[in-house]
DNA sequence: TCTGGGGTCCTAGGACCC
DNA sequence: TCTGGGGTCCTAGGACCC
C-alpha cells in the first residue's frame, strides 16, 4: 500500500479572522487581526466568554474560554465583538468549496478545520508542498483569511503539523521528523491530552511529548486505561484512521442546551425552557428523518454542578409533544428544587423515523406527527419564530432555544 | 458584568441472568 | 453453612475535541 498524503487545513483564529475580513469588506478602518481583539458572547445573558482572539490579544495571555471579565482585566482596551454564526458558516462553506477543487476526499473536522486525502494527487498538482502553498495563497487572495496547512502521512501528524507554524504557514511533520519537531513540545500540546490528563502526566514526571513517547506503554495503560495507550501511540506518531467524508447517518445523537440569563427556581419556568429545547431537537430529528429511543436531561446548578438523568424507552419517537412528555418525567425525577443556571436535552439511539415499517403507530401518535409536520412546514417557509407557543409570550424565555444555526458543522473530537 | 454549546467515547458500578 | 463468576445491559459522570 502506498504511503498516504494527508493535509490538515486550519483557519487561523477562525471566528476572529472571518469577522475581521467581513468588516474590512464593509468599510471598517481597522483590521481586528492587528489589534488586541476577540469574539465573545454577551455577559448580560451569562454567555460572557472568549470564543476566539487575535494574535495581539494572545500577547496579553487571553485564552479561549475565559470570561470577558478576566480578559478585560488583562487588556482593558481590547475590542470585543459578538459572534455571527451565519457568517462563519458561509466562510466555512466557501473554504470547503475551494478545497474540493484539489481533492474529492475531504473530512470536515469542525467549522474551521478540514482533513484532505491528497494521496496520489501529485500527478495532478505536483509535489505536496507546492500545492499546499498554492491552496494557502488562493484562500488568502480569494477568501481574505489565512490558514495553516500541515502535511504528513496520517491525520494526527498532519494536525500536529498545522499547529507548528501559525498564522499562514505550511509545515510537514513526517515520522522521521517527530523527534525534532514534536517531541520537544509540552505534553499538553498533543491532541487528546487535556487538562485532566496533563495534570496526571505531570505527576508522573512526564512534561514533554517526547517523554510521553518514551514511557513504557504498559505503565500508561495501567494508570490511564485505554486513553493512556491512545496518547502513547499519538506521541509516537502512530495513527492510521482514514479521511472519512462526513455522512449524516453516522450521527449518534442530538442535543441542545442553554444557559439561562437568570437562575431558575420554579418548575414552571424550568419546564418552559425544556419545552423550548425540545422544540429545537424535535425539528432537527424530523429534518434528518430520525426517531430516538434514548432521552436525557441535563442541568447545571447555580454552583456549577452538573446532573444528568436518562432513560431508554421501548419505542423510538420523533414527536415534539411525546419527547417533551418524557423529558418532563425525567426532569421531575431528578430535580430537587436547586437553582438552575443551565438546562439541556439530548436524544440518542437514533433510528429511521419510517414508522410504517416499524409498525409502532397508534392513532394518537399519528395525529401528533401530522401536527409536527405542519409546524415544521410553517417554520421552514416563514422562519423558525413564525409559529410559537402562546405560553412563551411575556415569559422572558425564548420559545425555541439551544442551538446554533442550521447545518453548522460541529463534528467530533475523534479522528 | 464570572465561568458557552454541540458533539463522541470511556469507565465504574449496579442489576440481572445463567 | 457462610457467600462463584462470567457476561451483558444500563446509567451517571467525566474526559476530550472544536
Describe the protein's topology.
Elements: E1 6-11, H1 14-25, E2 37-40, E3 50-53, H2 55-58, H3 68-74, E4 79-81, H4 85-100, E5 106-110, E6 113-117, H5 122-125, H6 128-143, E7 147-152, H7 155-162, E8 170-172, H8 178-181, H9 195-203, H10 209-213, H11 217-235, E9 253-264, H12 267-288, E10 290-301, E11 306-317, H13 320-334, E12 340-352, H14 355-358, H15 363-382
Parallel strand pairs: 2-4, 7-8
Antiparallel strand pairs: 1-6, 1-7, 2-3, 5-6, 9-12, 10-11, 10-12
Helix pairs in contact: 12-13
This protein binds a DNA duplex (18 and 18 nucleotides) through helix 3, helix 9, helix 11, strand 9 and strand 11.
Please sum up the structure shown.
By secondary structure, the chain is α+β, with helices and mostly antiparallel strands. It is built from 15 helices and twelve strands.
Strand content: 15-25%
Quickly name the level 1 CATH class of the largest domain: Alpha Beta
Outline type: globular
The biggest sheet amounts to: 5 strands, mixed
**Superfamily at the CATH H level of the largest domain?**
Reverse transcriptase/Diguanylate cyclase domain
Task: Using the 3D structure, state the CATH architecture of the largest domain.
Answer: 2-Layer Sandwich
Strand order of the largest sheet: 5-6-1-7-8
pLDDT averaged over residues: 93
**Structural class category:** alpha+beta
Under CATH, the topology of the largest domain is which?
Alpha-Beta Plaits
The number of E-state strands comes to 12
Question: What is the overall number of helices?
Answer: 15
The ordered string of helix (H) and strand (E) elements is: EHEEHHEHEEHHEHEHHHHEHEEHEHH
Distance between the termini: 21 Å
**Number of domains in the coordinates?**
3
- The parts where pLDDT drops under 50 for at least 5 residues are none
* Helical fraction: 25-40%
Q: In angstroms, what is the radius of gyration?
A: 24 Å
Amino acid at each position: 500500500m502506498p504511503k498516504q498524503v494527508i493535509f490538515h487545513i486550519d483557519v487561523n483564529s477562525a471566528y476572529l479572522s472571518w469577522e475581521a475580513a467581513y468588516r474590512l469588506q464593509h468599510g471598517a478602518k481597522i483590521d481586528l487581526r492587528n489589534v488586541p481583539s476577540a469574539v465573545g458572547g454577551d455577559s448580560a445573558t451569562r454567555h460572557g466568554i472568549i470564543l476566539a482572539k487575535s494574535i495581539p490579544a494572545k500577547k496579553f495571555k487571553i485564552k479561549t474560554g475565559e470570561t470577558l471579565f478576566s480578559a478585560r482585566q488583562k487588556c482593558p482596551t481590547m475590542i470585543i465583538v459578538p459572534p455571527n454564526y451565519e457568517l462563519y458558516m458561509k466562510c466555512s462553506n466557501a473554504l470547503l468549496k475551494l478545497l474540493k477543487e484539489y481533492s474529492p476526499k475531504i473530512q470536515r473536522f469542525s467549522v474551521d478545520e478540514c482533513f484532505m486525502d491528497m494521496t496520489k494527487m501529485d500527478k495532478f498538482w505536483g509535489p505536496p508542498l507546492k500545492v499546499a502553498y498554492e491552496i494557502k495563497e488562493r484562500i488568502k487572495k480569494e477568501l481574505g483569511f489565512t490558514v495553516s496547512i500541515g502535511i504528513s502521512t496520517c491525520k494526527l501528524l498532519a494536525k500536529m503539523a498545522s499547529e507548528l507554524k501559525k498564522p499562514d504557514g505550511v509545515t510537514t511533520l513526517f515520522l522521521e521528523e517527530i523527534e525534532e519537531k514534536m517531541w520537544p513540545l509540552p505534553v499538553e500540546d498533543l491532541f487528546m491530552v487535556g487538562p485532566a490528563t496533563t495534570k496526571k502526566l505531570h505527576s508522573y514526571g512526564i512534561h514533554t511529548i517526547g517523554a510521553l513517547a518514551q514511557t513504557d506503554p504498559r505503565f500508561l495503560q495501567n494508570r490511564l486505561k485505554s486513553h493512556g495507550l491512545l496518547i502513547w501511540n499519538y506521541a509516537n506518531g502512530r495513527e492510521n484512521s482514514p479521511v472519512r467524508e462526513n455522512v449524516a447517518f453516522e450521527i449518534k445523537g442530538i442535543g441542545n442546551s442553554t444557559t439561562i440569563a437568570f437562575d431558575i427556581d420554579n418548575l414552571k419556568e424550568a419546564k418552559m425552557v425544556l419545552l423550548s429545547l425540545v422544540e429545537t431537537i424535535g425539528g432537527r430529528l424530523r429534518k434528518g428523518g430520525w426517531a430516538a429511543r434514548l432521552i436525557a436531561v441535563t442541568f447545571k446548578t447555580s454552583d456549577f454542578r452538573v446532573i444528568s438523568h436518562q432513560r431508554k424507552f421501548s419505542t423510538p419517537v420523533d414527536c415534539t409533544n411525546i419527547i417533551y412528555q418524557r423529558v418532563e418525567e425525567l426532569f421531575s425525577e431528578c430535580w430537587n428544587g436547586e437553582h438552575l443556571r443551565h438546562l439541556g436535552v439530548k436524544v440518542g439511539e437514533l433510528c429511521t423515523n419510517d414508522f410504517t415499517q416499524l409498525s409502532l403507530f397508534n392513532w394518537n401518535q399519528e395525529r401528533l406527527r401530522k401536527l409536527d409536520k405542519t409546524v415544521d412546514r410553517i417554520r421552514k417557509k416563514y422562519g423558525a419564530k413564525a409559529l410559537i407557543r402562546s405560553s412563551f409570550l411575556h415569559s422572558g424565555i425564548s420559545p425555541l432555544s439551544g442551538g446554533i444555526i442550521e447545518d453548522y458543522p460541529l463534528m467530533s473530537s475523534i479522528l
